[in-house]
Design brief:
about 50% helix; Dehydroquinate synthase-like, alpha domain; 16 helices; alpha/beta; 5-stranded parallel sheet; single chain; 9 strands; about 350 residues; globular; Rossmann fold
Length: about 350
Amino acid sequence: MNRIEQTIRDWKCSGEGTTRRVFVVTDTNVDRLVMPLFAEAAPSIAEAERIVISPGEDNKNIRTVESVWRRLMSAEATRNDLLVNVGGGMVSDLGGFAAATFKRGMPYANIATTLLAAADASVGGKTGVNFGGVKNAVGAFAMPLGTEVCYEAFSTLSREEILSGYGEILKMSLVASPESLVSIARAEDNIADLERLGDFARESARLKMAIVDKDPKETGLRKTLNFGHTFGHAFESLALERGHCVAHGIAVAYGIVTALVLSRMLCGFPSELLYFVAKEVVRPYFGSVGMTCSDYPELLAFMHNDKKNSDSGSIRFVLLEDAGRPVCDVSVPDDDVKAALDICRDLLS
């Protein structure tokens, strides 16, 4: 925790002029369970003006962003102040977007308190909110000053929250670190070992930033990080529309299996590796996908509205020729998407 206090001091003094004021965005769960950890070890966080929002993907919207803007306005925040997001992916996405747009941009940083945020969501500079029923439909590329991880907070996470982060770690392994797949597959041992999870999260974030540094605005190489997400975001959006949430990384795990099915169909991905991921990792730990063929029209509508498509008439996917060999911008007809959904349901049943 002391390292976080030193990092905050460095962030405060990294801009123009005098030391910045610090504003913290967090959610009610983190405020209750994690913020007390900062009381002695990180007073720059504990004593900052705190903006507490409601948790959950259903609150990741413009109304919540407006509440953050209003608090910043009432406190007379300036573009030289610092907004620190303390929490998981929802907090870093929304808080980062609020900072990127307040007075045309104030600096922000992230302190990740979940495995998902540590491994993926809090690094890379993608910010945004859900809009019109579409996941992350409104947002901005805005790189944080930096990201720190509060590993002590992992002990407060539910199994579902840990699995959500694990889904993104699995994605990163398939895209950029195939040599780690065997160790990733030992999910039960890994989930029970918070130190090992921290190691996986650090490596996942490192791999991601190596890609982001080469392509910060997602014009080419960074697109590979969307593997599994076109399906995953559709599963999330459908759940939100029906009044319940599916954790992001869990939806991505289902999306990974469906994308691997398409990869087998269209790119020759090895069938034995597809079955290994589906049957040895995703099915035992993430469970069944919970959809029927009657859901396909809505899922396809969400996928056609995905922001990564170049036009509304086609759906573009990141697929894999093999682990570590991604292929971007593969246009797939709806009938093939439906066939992949059928096979995914069978594999995960």
